[in-house]
Structure formats: structure tokens, C-alpha cells
């Protein structure tokens, strides 16, 4: 149970970071980093969403050229990318926010056109994602994913190392830390989920084996940049990209148990665990809340929850101790000043799904309106949302 009176606008100490509120920008792929380099459009977009003492997580950011499965998503594996990210990070810091870089490898959720030399995407398996799921191509059309190639056991350490090199680059770019993307049917999830992982080596079969890749990645990144700069995102119950598991509750608990143990071994908590919960299908909301609550109670550290939160649900989750922080995705796309709007209980702009993944640097990206200036100034005087702690 949280302390009495805890709300979305209570301050929170997340490891060494002092946050003034608990409304987090969720990681959101937006396909505006032309050629994989974050440019001025990203500087503007992230600056718009920064608040003093706020916390932002970047969109999924590629750890290597093989990590790609979308057009125009940024990377963090080349010097040019590191230099370009510095401008984003500096602008966000200038507005007083903390920012983590989300480290992403899509694994088999890719297509040969996105792979160096047109090779098959890498994965835990040779099985392709079914045609129930579609991949966005560079010309804006949708296709099916290409058949992947299962990594040889001997190749896995190199892939683990890509995560730690990317984490070092992120710190070099000035990020406050990194969030390892372990959900949504991407590479790490392709090892975790028993509906995908069909390996017969030490990375498949038992729970211990399916968690091995993930734990090696976390360990490597922690060794590279320190546990207090590392976070992990997971979605055990989400079947996106065919990422099914026969027992998601237990999978989540097993991952958490291993992270708790690692934290004890290294003598420091990770910065946080970020759970993306299922968007409750009608009639399943209670199960979703209960499952997430079980994971929350099991994890020894800061817990961020994401998925279908409104002002009311977020306030409730924080007040009841179901989350320390709440991340908002779609509403943050369409409301650059979401934090202020939630604070004031002001109406929200509606998001436009058609421009989620288009490439215009302005339209559907940085042109969603702020509350009118006059209203902001007036409301500001009646609000303590932005007092720095
Ligand atoms: C356009 C879009 C892009 C997304 N990109 C990412 C991503 O890069 N990494 C990630 O972990 N989740 C991603 N997500 C999931 C969001 O972080 C979030 O969990 C999801 O939108 C549910 O939260 P909401 O109900 O507040 O929108 C994306 C979601 C959307 C709508």
C-alpha cells in the first residue's frame, strides 16, 4: 500500500533520481529519425514532453544494424547516432527531465529488406511470425515478416555484447540510463516465451534456460553501466507478434525472482521494472489488475506500469500501491503537455492513429496543440505541479 495521499503528483525518489511527479512518457516508436539518426524533429518532440522533475523513456532504439524492423527508427550503435542523441538529451535535461534510452532488438519481427545484406533476421527460432501480424515496410505498405534464422549457441554472447555496447553509447550520449526492451514479441521475448522458443540448447526448454539470454543481457548491461542506470521492460501476458506463453503469470514471476536475486548479488536495485500490462479485453480487467498486482508485490524495487491508463486509473494505481509510476503512451502522443492536463483535469486531444508511424517531422508528431497559453498561465498560478523538489 502506498503512503496515504499518494497521487500521480506526489514526488518520488527513483534510485538516485528525484522526480516531481509520476507521469512517465512511455517508449513510443514514431519513425521520425530519418536514416536512423535522431534529428531536430526528435529534439522538438522530446522537449515538448519534458517537465521539471519528469521522466521520459525514448522510443525503441536499435542496438545494431540487425536490430531493425521498422522504417526510420533511431539507433545507438554508431558515433553519428550518439552525437545526434546528445542534442535530444541536452534539450530534455535543460527542461529538468530525466531520460532513459530504450534498447531494442526486434529479432524475427523484421524483414530481409531491413537486414544488412538482405540476410534472414535473427531469433531464438527458425519459425516465422504468422501472417496474423504485419510489418510496416519502407513504402508505407504492410507485409508479413521474413522467416528468421535461429542463432547458433556460439553466436549468442556476441548479441549479448551488442546490448552492453549500446548501453555504453547511451551513457556517452548523456542519457541518465537505459531501459532494456524485453517485451512485445521482440528478441528477448522470443527467448522467454514457450510459444516461440523451441531451442534444445541451454537457451531453450526449462524456465531457467528460457530466462538465460535475458539474464545474460541484464548482467552484461549492469556490468557496463551500473545497476542504478539499468531498467527492464517486460510484457509476459501480451501475445503481440505471436509471443504467447502457456503460463504468463509464472513467467513474469520467474523473471522477477531472477532480477531480485541479481539485485542482491550486485548490491543495488535496477532503476525500475516496467511492466506493460494487457489492454483489458472486456471482462478480463480484474484478471489483468490481479496479475499485475502479483508481479508488483513480488518485485523488490520501483515498479512502472503501462497500458490503458487514464487519469483516474493512474491515480488509483498509485494510491493503492499497484504502481510507483505510471507510463502513458497514446495520450502522450497527442498531448505534448499531458502532465499539465492531467494535473488540471483538462480535456485531452485525441490521438490520430494514421500518423503514429508516418515520417513527417511535424504532422502528427510535434503539431498536437498545447493548452492555450492564457489558460496555462492562469492555471499555473493555481497549480503546484511544477515546483521542483
Ligand atoms: C505508436 C506506438 C509505438 C510504440 N512503440 C513502443 C516502443 O518503441 N517500445 C515499447 O516498449 N513499447 C512501445 N509501445 C507501447 C507503449 O509504450 C505503451 O505500453 C502502450 O501504448 C500502452 O499504453 P497506452 O494505453 O497509454 O497507450 C508503442 C505503442 C504505440 C501506440
From TrEMBL:
Residues 7-348 form the NADH:flavin oxidoreductase/NADH oxidase N-terminal domain. Keywords: Flavoprotein, FMN, NADP, Oxidoreductase. GO terms for biological process: jasmonic acid biosynthetic process; oxylipin biosynthetic process. The keyword NADP applies. InterPro entries: OxRdtase_FMN_N, Oye-like. GO terms for cellular component: peroxisome. Pfam families: Oxidored_FMN. GO terms for molecular function: 12-oxophytodienoate reductase activity; FMN binding. It comes from the Eukaryota. Its cofactor is FMN. Belongs to the NADH:flavin oxidoreductase/NADH oxidase family. PANTHER family: 12-OXOPHYTODIENOATE REDUCTASE 3, NADH OXIDOREDUCTASE-RELATED. This is NADH:flavin oxidoreductase/NADH oxidase N-terminal domain-containing protein. It comes from Populus tomentosa.
